[in-house]
Amino acid sequence: MDAKARVSQLRDEVERHAYLYYVLDSPEISDSEYDKLFRELQDLEAEHPELWTPDSPSNRVGGKPVQGFTQHRHAVPMLSLDNAFNHEELRAFDDRAKRLLGVEGPIEYFAELKFDGASISLTYVDGVLQLGATRGDGTTGENVTQNAKTLRGVPLRLRESLPGELEARGEVVMLRSVFEELNRIRASRSEQLFANPRNAAAGGLRQLDSKLTAQRKLNFFAYGVGLVRIGERTLADTQAGILQTLKRLGFAVRDEPRVLHGIDEVIEYVGHAGSIRGSLPFGIDGVVVKVNSLAQQEDLGFTARGPRWAIAFKFPAEQAFTKLNRVFPQVGRTGNVTPVADLEPVSVAGVIVARATLHNYQEVRRKDVREGDVVIVQRAGNVIPEVVGPVLDKRAEGLTPPEEPTHCPECNAELVHVGGEIALRCPNKACPAQIEAKIAHFVSRKAMDIDGFGPKLIRRLLEVGYLTDLPSLYRLKDRRDAMVEMDRLGDQSVAKILENIELSKHRPLDKFLFGLGIRFLGERGAQELAAHFRTLEQIRSVDYDHFLEVNDVGPRTARELQEWFEEEANQQMLDDFRVVGVVPTEAAAPEGDTFAGSTLVFTGKLEKFTREDAEQLVMKLGGKAAGSVSKATTYLVAGPGAGSKLAKAESLGVPVLTEDEFLRMLPEGSL
Ligand code: IVH
Fold first, then answer.
1. Which end of the chain lies in a sparser environment, N or C, as judged by fewer CB atoms within 10 Å?
2. Ligand 1 mean position, distance from CA 80 (Å)
């Protein structure tokens, strides 16, 4: 085969695999096989410069840097959208659309994720990418064509023949995983970190050197079209159809969008999108609701600001600015001492945040945050709030970095770095702060669920010596009168607290195990451990190899479990629990084997169960319930509003059941 033919063949292959990987999310070859093909193409093109074309995938790694960007005037302006911040505003949008369209019944909507990135316009002439432009002010943007070629999910040549001109539009985002990886690298080089994926994406798109854009590994997701000049043909007659067409043409299009009937379904979808927000691989800042029919869109038309046929429902921002008042060390339940930021209270993602973690003192130094700084605070997904970094422009003079403590702020023991770890630790097992944190964890809802036992009370009872360790909780009933006298507690509330403590004596074994606060043993691990060994006695009698047999317990957790149960003080504590009458309820033996060897995942809205009940039922019938879909998943049970888990199951070929189908699998009488 001559070079020309091979180059052409390699281009097709490389583009097909990029499409399989970034658009269909189902690669056929390994990364290294892909790299091999890519390198062969690059080498051949280097030998034969005359074979270069603008749509060769070798352009994806970037080309020669440019001096500056030229301006590009958009043929169709890139408008922005009106926002809705609550359900009433969505209903008002719906009412207006109905009025203007003169319809009574529900409008058909198409709801999409609102990607949190930077928008881009991509123009194809006769199927080949000719131009990429940023949004700019909506009328004029910048020509960033070289950079656009590096985006994952952007075809350099459309996958179907399309004579004429097509402008695809969408958002450029940086995946969270990429963001974290790049920030890790930046941290190791003591470089300034990206504050968030959006800035990293928007900045990446505007690099003069497209090789730098390529290094940011940005993704593109299509959400619509601009100018379309394809003769008599049309792309589709609904927004849903447009996205389908774009996907066929080779653009990355997400699977989460839904056709919905009426605003009530839209409101439900918005709630669903909020619930999957934290588990998506990229950031979203809301949901874009579009009238699905293009004819109706045309009837509704535009205002000066934007379309009357679409609205953006905005989620609360995941980042905010506030003042850092103080950095103080906090001692956790395993003795780890972490720097905590005391902040001027600020609302982040809908919650008031006054404290945020700074992880460790190395981070404090690297981020260079100082008391008195204005800082960016973040609360992404369900993770605890953290300080991202200082806003250097706003730094007052004379601020000094906080110092790493040398002694425990609570018991004054000398702090240590265990085995070269970054984490700073208080080695004193009797440190009151550690005991306090252990007790707080033990009484928490997901563990022993002792209601009314807040941090203030724990602290107070530790101070007066009524609490000394976990089992001492169950001796508080002997201190009833003294507690009533204490700090205006009152008879009734003491009675209630003591009652709750009594009730917890027979909590299920897994909750008790989780409450012990053993390192690496999370809620699921505790469930597996309880289901496997059934009783605490059994668990106390086994060792490393037996722990390893438990589902989901790997070598690290098994070692930790072995060490924990070997420690004399812990054995003593478990004996003590028995003395005070704590006898966790044994994990029930499976009542059937319907799901033996199966792992089920539940997603979306279930009508007949809570998710927790459904999972309990699966375990009762010998199966496993997991939180995320993988190759090991036997069934995904998906209710209305299912999103990314459903898409993942479909792409992995995991069978998907409706709630009714799941119900039909249950043996009679198991409900
Ligand atoms: S449609 C005329 N769909 O949000 C309608 N926009 O304020 C144009 N965005 O600048 C926008 N995800 O960059 C649309 N699924 C989505 C979107 C989306 C993110 C951005 C877009 C635009 C802004 C609208």
1. N
2. 7
Q: How far apart are CA 297 and CA 83, in angstroms?
A: 18
Distance between CA 48 and CA 51 in Å, rounded? 6
Does residue 369 come out as left (phi exceeding 0), alpha (psi in the -120 to 50 range) or beta?
Answer: beta
- Name which of 625, 630, 622 is nearest 609 in CA terms: 625
Is the pLDDT higher at 460 or at 486? 460
Residues 87-103 pLDDT 10s: 999 999 999 999 999 99
- 619 Cβ closer than 6 Å to some ligand 1 atom: no
CB atoms within 10 A of CB 555: 10
The predicted-structure confidence for 469-484, as pLDDT tens digits, reads as follows: 999 999 999 999 989 8
Calpha distance 584→300 (Å, rounded): 63
**Best of 82, 121, 288 to mutate for ligand 1, by most ligand atoms within 8 A of CB?**
288
Query: Is 446 one of the annotated active-site residues of the chain?
Result: no
Residue 236 tokens, joined: 């589709």
pTM of the model: 0.67
Atom 23 in ligand 1: residue holding the nearest Cα: 80
pLDDT band, very low/low/confident/very high, at 258 (cuts 50, 70, 90)? very high
> Does residue 574 contact residue 566 with C-beta atoms inside 8 Å?
no
Question: Residue 168: pLDDT above 70?
Answer: yes
How remote is the CA of residue 278 from the centroid of ligand 1, in Å?
20
Predicted confidence (pLDDT) at residue 75 exceeds the cutoff of 90 = yes
The span from the CA of 239 to the CA of 279, in Å, is 26
Which atom of ligand 1 is closest in space to residue 306's alpha carbon?
2
Distance between CA atoms of 493 and 602, rounded to whole angstroms?
A: 39
For tokens 């002792």, the residue is: 450
* Sign of the torsion angle spanned by Cα atoms 345, 349, 351, 354: negative
Helix, strand, coil abundance in the chain, percent, nearest 5? 40, 20, 40
Q: What is the DSSP string of 374-407?
A: EEEEE--TTSPPEEEEE-GGGPPTT--PPPPPSB
Q: Select the more confidently predicted residue: 192 or 574.
A: 574
pLDDT value for 450: 94
Residues 611-641, buried b or exposed e (16+ Cβ, 10 A)? beebbbbbbbbbbbbbeebeeebbbbbbbeb
Length of the chain: 671
Quick check: 381 and 348 in contact, CB under 8 A? Answer: no
